[in-house]
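Blinded run. Sample ID left blank on purpose so nobody reads anything into the name before looking at the predicted structure. Input follows.
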Amino acid sequence: MLEVRDLHLSFGGIKALQGVGFTARAGEITGVIGPNGAGKTSLFNAISGFYAPSRGQVLLDGEDITKAPPDRRAALGIARTFQNIALFRGMTVLDNIKLGGHTRLRSGIWSALGYFGTAQREELAFRAEIEERVIDFLEIDHIRKLPITMLPYGLQKRVELARALAMRPKVLLLDEPVAGMNREETGDMARFILDVQQEFGTTILLVEHDMHMVMDICARIVVLNFGHQIAEGSPAEVSATPAVIEAYLGQAV
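Blinded prediction complete.
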């Protein structure tokens, strides 16, 4: 579903990614792990189009999208969440989620401005879909009319996931979805991520520091360290790789 080939990304003299390459298989959860500064978020930004790699390719369903702008990639089916919550704080939960589906709406500018005809019918149908497919699915119906600023951190993370799901993504990029959460919130989010994969067949690429969660829900794991890819495989294979152990625990002297 998503393939990264020999990806290189630099910022001046800093080499953020150096020859990273892997495949996120269709319908599976693939984890991307590594110490702080390993290049995980830079990889996400290159896949989603925020950064242009100096070398390499990003392919979606076999189509080269390396030079496609972010809005084109979103229309093709790539959605993401962010390490730091990126919701519109002056808007309600429902309005934030609806914004995620703008790439799927087809009405013209004049009917949209006047909110009549095709635009009205399309938005009403889309809102009904969101309420049935996303809001109920993520169990946030009780907060849909509340402003984002009234929500605790864990629920804001769930709303951001809902906004990404409103895009009906083929590939979902989750950047540290449980960072800052307590054990109960982490368990809930892990359950929702698994449900998304199983119910919708979504291909998920997950960056996360919670190793227990990564090992539990990911079919395959890619390990980065200082921009280099040092391992790839099943959770059992990766956890037994000496280079991974050294990157996380250090080398005995």
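Unblinding after everyone has recorded impressions. The beta strands are 2-11, 14-24, 29-33, 55-60, 63-64, 78-80, 171-175, 203-207, 220-225, 228-233.
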